[in-house]
Amino acid sequence: QVQLVESGGGLVQPGGSLRLSCATSGSIFSINSMGWYRQAPGKQRESVATMSSGGSTNYADSVKGRFAISRDNAKNTVYLQMNSLKPEDTAVYYCRMDWSWGVRSWGQGTQVTVSS
User: Which of 9, 85, 88, 92 sees the fewest Cβ atoms within 10 Å?
Assistant: First the structure.
């Protein structure tokens, strides 16, 4: 079974930056789409940023201009660069990968807390 391992979360002050990583044991070339999602306490999980296998990206309106999704094919890793963080960005962040053979994988989640 393909595994996703997330890292990079933590506590940061408003205006700060973090970079999340999601490393997979599978080949990134077998992914149809990949993305980052987040879930704040008492709220539903929402899409933050997604990327297709062709490299097309989509962002939630709330993070446009501040967050960027990228990938390193050689490392089979997807990243989420988060800049100008706000308290409302506080949530557990999950990566998701949709594989070409029809399986969807989720990471274990990493906590991001934006607070002074």
Answer: 88
